[in-house]
Amino acid sequence: RGLLTRLNTPICIVCYLAAIVWFMGLAFEPFTLRTDMSENAMGSTMVLLRGASAVPRQGVRSSQKTGAVSTWLVKAMQSRGLEVFTQSFSRKLPFPDENKERYMVRGTNVYGILRAPRAPRTEALVISAPCSPGDSNNQAVGLLLALAQYFRNQVYWAKDIIFLVNEHDLMGTQAWLEAYHHTNITGMEYSPLQGRGGSIQAALSLELSSDVITSLDLILDGLNGQLPNLDLANLFYAFCQKLGVLCTIQGKLQRNDWDTAEGYTHAAQTMMLMVLKQACGRSWGDHGLFLRYHIEAASVRGINSFRHYKTDAATIGRLLEGMVRKLNNLLERLHQSYFFYLLPSLSRFVSIGCYMPAFGLLVVILLLRALDLWVHLGAPALAAVEGVTEAQQPSGPAVLTVLTPVVISHLTGVALYLLPVHLQEMAVEHFPVSETEAVVLTAVAIYTTGLALPHNTQRLLSGEGTEQGWKVLKLTALLYLAVLLGCTALINFSLGFVLAVTLVPITASMTPHMPKALSALVMVLLSPAFTILYCVFIYQELIEAPVSVSEGWMLFLSVISQGILDHALYGSLVYPLLALFIYPCWLMFWNILFWS
Amino acid sequence: MAAPLTLLLIVAVTIRAVLFRSSLAELISARVEVVSPLNAWKRVVEGLALLDLGVSPYSGDVFHETPLMIYLFHFTVDYAEIVFIVSAYFFRKQKYALESDRYSADCLELLRSPKEMFYIPLKVAMFYLLNPFTILSCVAKSTCGLNNAIIALFIFCTLKGSALLSGILLALATYQSIYPLTLFAPALLFFLQRLYIPVNLRRSSFWFFTLQYAFMYVGSLVVITGLSFFLLGSWDFIPSVYGFIFSVPDLTPNIGLFWYFFAEMFEHFRLFFSCVFQFNVFFYTIPLSIKLKEHPVFLIFMQIAIISIFKSYPTVGDVALYMAFLPAWSHLYRFLRNIFLVSCVLLACSALFPVLWHLWIYAGSANSNFYYAITLLFNFGQVKVFTTTWLTNCEWKNRWRNKVSLFINLY
């Protein structure tokens, strides 16, 4: 027991540093594994790609209005021999989206089904191109139509192919998927689908904004940090190599010099970008919503980076044709390769067995601290005759001192979750701000009000704080945080890791006996809100578009509003997790700091 | 004592009422850790609907409750939530009452200060009413709460000394699910101890009382079974309820140990393995009764723990039942070495159950092995609690015996 107490702090510090070093070391190439195809049905990439080169493409004219676009699309798809159906949907946003400034979003999805000529209609593949009025993504729709025409003439299709053109990006996809699977988890109103294929095995989403493409970017991060099977990424990479197309991940090209410092930093930057994108829990491409229904999906985005070497549309057509033919060969859903991985580059990956120990080391710190506290709590009472006051059931008055901060912290968390959206009308009446700003600023205000709580609760309790009280509270809070971070890391490793890196040092070392002003400052600087702020700045640095402080602050506010919106629209779990669990946990430690 | 208890009751009822009305209620009643095919509310509603249509509720292999239960709900189906909250309240009252009068009969109280003893009934009440497991079970309207109430009433009547009522209630509990049969031995031992009849197989008074009690128990069981037959007019309920419990045909994952094994094994060996698994539950009665014949109340606790861990369809409501008894043995806490680690394991497992279920069923990234691993860890933690309590009880008894002999030697 004495050993545990003496070595506790050194072990904790060693564990923390080891975790950070391990995590950064994951990007070092010898520690990663080479990606290769695990699914046997997709073995060789030997498909003869005759390509869509002979078929002229037609971009969507950007001057057309919404209704006209969908009628034109219906005609275009019908003329190519697909079964065409439309679906209309509408959704009332909780507050106006700051990009589009409206409450009600209405749209129409158009999709055409290419039936497999000789197979029973039990499985389907989806190729989607988000299309909104305006210039964005008109090339992708053209490519889609060209592919449809080419595919119609082939006889080897074993699965139905659904060509989906959805409006309003993620909302259209969400409406279509919900209607397809007969669920309604986000409260969207949609008209039911008239035509269906079988169960969807895989999906690809195309985003091509210009007709000059120099490289293709693969986007894998989906909603709540869910990733498609690694085989899909392997497939894409294999075809890019075969056809000589430049492919990137996180917008960065691969480098071959892993033993130099630049090579390593490049890989580390790619990996950090993936971690940050996964941690924020939103879907970075239309494919992200497919993952929730156990459909492996990825987004392919064409990038024009003004290189000399340009890829022509025919090659991209052949690439997509190859990928869809390979997916056509699947006997069962992709499951052979990893579902949990990090990609420092497209050809190397880090599996869950490699990256989990980094997180495990951080949680071990919390458990060691908890064990240490338990020993301290149990030790003096062992000598007493009345029996042990142990953490599970302290006697009457002591329960109240521990229970009060817990209850108040969680009530603040509930307020942080519910009030910003509900009080926006009231805020707009009294202050000259727009609704979006009202929501975000209310959230920030409630967050800051929580900081003032310990002084008020102490007054309520009329000075019941004892030495043992804060230890019991800290023990409960440490275990709570450990379980919370563990569950988060299982579902979304990046979110769990990012939160652990900032929360573990302050929570493990927090006692009321530390210098109040300094530790209060440190605690606030490492609180969840500031973690988000740092992540925004780091993300901007990594995508090579660094921002100034004021711009960063505006980005931070927009991130919060996007988080709240994502939760309301698509069921993203990051905002409720932070508001209802992480923030109350942090508040409990804040209470411990001001325990008197 | 009345004021804190009333406050506790108000808090507990408020929490349950709030959760009943919220959208979480449906979510909770679908969780496999909280409801099992034996006690799910959905199935009770299904059985009621079949009964209203004039069809036997046991046709179709959906309904596995006993006929008395279905008639109880026939009359109270609209007030089902109130029934569950009231049963939780009665359970509380029984626990509270039994704790407060238990220690006049038991010799264990001497090592505890009176102040602590005063708080024990309140602690037991708190442990049961505010246990998240019981709250979840009540909000899911699982009939496990009613079963727990019957067992609590049985313990209450046993401790009060009324053999007839105890026999009737035990028969009712056995009728609901077979496993409380093992509680016959500790109840018998308690009565023998109370009436100062030594447990000696050669004494006629021992056999006389045993036969009396057994007659009351078996008689009530026969009466209740006959009543069920007359209510429904057929013997359908016996294979549907008891056959279902023993043969374990439904392999929905739950927090028990049966489903994974039975999902994997060949049909040929199924009978053998179900016999082995069921035998495991009943096997510990005789050795434990022999060892603990002077401590029948502790034996009841041990038996309930064994039933909750090894029964064929456990749920968290069963776990909450024996956990609520833990404060009654708070004098053992001083010797419980691993309790911190074990309770961390149980806490972590309870949190990981829904996470791994989501990853397995919805995200498709995990598979049944992950979920079963957590189930195994959870049951291992429970067995650790059980064995640690048992061992510390033995150690405590030895110390107590040494102290008493020292005391006697001094004089």
From TrEMBL, chain A:
GO terms for cellular component: GPI-anchor transamidase complex. Pathway: Glycolipid biosynthesis; glycosylphosphatidylinositol-anchor biosynthesis. One of its GO terms (biological process) is attachment of GPI anchor to protein. Coiled coil: none annotated. Its main location: endoplasmic reticulum. It is found in: Endoplasmic reticulum membrane. Keywords: Disulfide bond, Endoplasmic reticulum, Glycoprotein, GPI-anchor biosynthesis, Membrane, Transmembrane, Transmembrane helix. The chain crosses the membrane at residues 6-28, 349-371, 398-419, 477-506, 518-540, 577-595. It is a multi-pass membrane protein. It comes from the Eukaryota. InterPro entries: Gaa1. It holds the Pfam family Gaa1. Component of the glycosylphosphatidylinositol-anchor (GPI-anchor) transamidase (GPI-T) complex that catalyzes the formation of the linkage between a proprotein and a GPI-anchor and participates in GPI anchored protein biosynthesis. Binds GPI-anchor. Heteropentamer. Part of the GPI-anchor transamidase complex, consisting of PIGK, PIGT, PIGS, PIGU and GAA1. Interacts with PIGK. This is GPI-anchor transamidase component GPAA1. It comes from Cyprinus carpio.
Automatic annotation (TrEMBL), chain B:
It is found in: Endoplasmic reticulum membrane. GO terms for cellular component: GPI-anchor transamidase complex. Residues 1-25 form the signal peptide. Pathway: Glycolipid biosynthesis; glycosylphosphatidylinositol-anchor biosynthesis. The chain crosses the membrane at residues 150-172, 178-197, 209-235, 241-262, 269-286, 298-326, 338-363, 369-391. It is a multi-pass membrane protein. GO terms for biological process: attachment of GPI anchor to protein; GPI anchor biosynthetic process. Its main location: endoplasmic reticulum. InterPro entries: PIG-U (IPR009600). Keywords: Endoplasmic reticulum, GPI-anchor biosynthesis, Membrane, Signal, Transmembrane, Transmembrane helix. Coiled coil: none annotated. It holds the Pfam family PIG-U. PANTHER family: GPI TRANSAMIDASE COMPONENT PIG-U (PTHR13121), PHOSPHATIDYLINOSITOL GLYCAN ANCHOR BIOSYNTHESIS CLASS U PROTEIN (PTHR13121:SF0). Belongs to the PIGU family. This is Phosphatidylinositol glycan anchor biosynthesis class U protein-like. It comes from Cyprinus carpio.
